[in-house]
Amino acid sequence: MSKLLIALLLCATPLAYAHETALTKVAVQTDLPTMERGADTLMNNCHSCHSLKYIKYRDLMKLGISKQKVDGWRGELGLDTPLLAQMSESDALQSFGTAPPDLSLMTKARDGGPDYVYSYLLGYYLNASGVPGNHIFPETKMPDPLGVSGTSDPAQLNSIKDQARDIVSFLNWAADPQQSARLRLGYYVIGYLLLLTFLLYLVKNQIWSRLD
Amino acid sequence: MPARIMKWIDHRFPLTNFVKHELTGYPTPRNLSYWWNFGFLAGFVLVLQIATGIFLAMHYKADIALSFDSIQHIMRDVNYGWLLRYMHATGASAFFFVIFVHMARTLYYGSYRAPRELLWWTGQGLLLLLMATAFMGYLLPWGQMSFWGATVITNLFRATPFFGDQVVVWLRGDYTVGDATLTRFFALHYLFPFIICAAVVIHLVALHTVKSSNPSGIDLAAKDNIPFHPYFTAKDLYGLGWFLIIYCIFVFFLPDSLIEPANNIPANPMQTPNHIVPEWYFLPFYAILRSVPDLVGGVLAMGLSVMMFAFMPILDRSRIPGGAHYRPFYRWQFFLFIIDMLVLGYVGYTPPTDSTLLLGQVATLCYFGSFFIIPFVSRMEERWLIKRGLPPAVIELMAGEAAAIERHKQSHEQRKGARL
Question: B402 at the A interface (CB within 8 A)?
Fold first, then answer.
């Protein structure tokens, strides 16, 4: 009985990541240099159209990015300003026909999470007549941001893949800045609970031994 | 001094008596297995949900323009807000998991049988309250799945005869799920847990009247009962330890596995998600809803599927004592039913195709069928068991218990006689 019931709970988990198109797995990094490179690429290539409204400039400094760099990005804006897109939503609507989505929760908001974003960024191609498309999200209005569709040189392709991984790593942090604190606390909590449960087991045995 | 205080209190309020009657002297069968821990665990999760929920409500804004942002505020800016929110979100799943095991145990061991019918029915009421509370709570983050889930489910009330459309508007407070819906769901989501608490008290009063059933399924003599405290408080706490370990693995390491990705997109009434799925604990019932092509029929089938459990004391006609241990046919039926629930859960999760639709319809028939054949199976099983002879273990157990109860009665009467 127990196995069946536990299976009921667990079967919901892997299914949640099922996706029609096969996604490329990405090794999300949590070290500062990778995330900082990702932030750099994002601020230069994506931020003109996409906002990260749940991230403030101060959060970037908390992540460990130097004040100089953050100051360069924010210009006159205050530290507690959210990272809103440079382009207004109405301008974006006019140019692309759709409002570019906010990126704060992007790695959590799609089936497949970070793998989806990574595969999407690398999913651009040119068809036989030279019209660009995207394998993962065919309806996308965004032009190929990293230039992957026009590249055939393996070295250049690898550097684009690294860039995509860096962006995804940064976005993964942006979606859940408390993740590292959560994992750290989690190990202590589980350790404590294992000890507590062991002690409770001894207490229970001690008390029940009175019966025999 | 403490003795004098206790005396002062007991003169005015039956405190000592209450503790003695319900805790230190409350007779509990000594053979209860760990499957009997889950009632206590459900009570624990209820307290956990109320405690985290009250603190979340201090930071949450029930306003369609603010609620999605306020959740992110909780997740990012409130000290340990992420912990509160993940505990609460995971807690909802934990609550249903614990309740489902609690119900499965009752079904397996036949704990719903006389004299525990009212206990089982109060539990059925608690299940409905829990489902309503969870459903309303799911709207509050105002994500895509929140919005569309609430839209689909409130829309089902169109099936009400004569004034279905008006009922839907009355429930939503608007023609579509909107701000009015969000604020009322928040108010009721805050209210319902306290109604659940009151219903739990009723459930416990019923329990303490008829006492716990036990794995043998036979009423035990006094000699086989032990006081709840300290024996079962210790056992429940040890079980709680294991529960917390599994719960905290989800809270700290897998919290997003229980949250649909689409719910991280703010609600957008103009854009329907490709595939609207409820939370995992509603999937089997959702699959039954979808298996019936007609709206009214589907709603009736879904409502009935939740309520079928209440009919168990009436459907189970067997006079064979004991739980599924001693009832081979019923035991098979139980496990097949669990498998059927898993199949329905799978069907509810996947996007509808011709094959899953057929699978869902077959599983739905099996679901209701397994209830409807119980009267016949239990009768047949009874005849089969009587013809072949009851399992020796159950005969021995019954004889032993009957003798012990008889001895107890005699000594009781002797004492009564001596007093007279």
Answer: no
CATH homologous superfamily for the domain A28-174: Cytochrome c-like domain (1.10.760.10)
Beta carbons of B27 and B33 less than 8 angstroms apart = no
Cα–Cα distance measured from residue A161 to residue A148, given in angstroms and rounded to the nearest whole number: 9
With CA atoms as reference, the chain B residue closest to A202 would be: B238
Query: Among A113, A186, A207, whose Cβ lies nearest the Cβ of B234?
Result: A207
Q: ipTM of this predicted complex? A: 0.89
SS3 B389: coil
Domain residue spans in chain B? 17-276, 280-389
Q: What are the tokens at B325?
A: 């241990």
Catalytic residues of B: 208, 212, 235-236, 279
- List CB contacts (< 8 A) between A203 and chain B: 234, 237-238
What residues of A are in contact with residue B247 (Cβ under 8 Å)?
none
Q: In the CATH hierarchy, which fold is given to the domain comprising B280-389?
A: Helix Hairpins (1.10.287)
Mean pLDDT of B196-213: 95
Residue B275 CB coordination number (10 Å): 14
Q: In B, residues 33-72, which contact A (CB 8 Å cutoff)?
A: 35, 69, 72
pLDDT of amino acid A86: 82
Q: Which residues contact B76 (CB under 8 A, 6 or more apart)?
A: A54, A59, A177, A178, B82
Residues of A with Cβ-Cβ distance to B341 under 8 angstroms = 8
A70-96: average pLDDT: 87
CATH number for B17-276: choose from 1.10.287.70, 3.40.50.150, 1.20.810.10, 1.10.760.10: 1.20.810.10
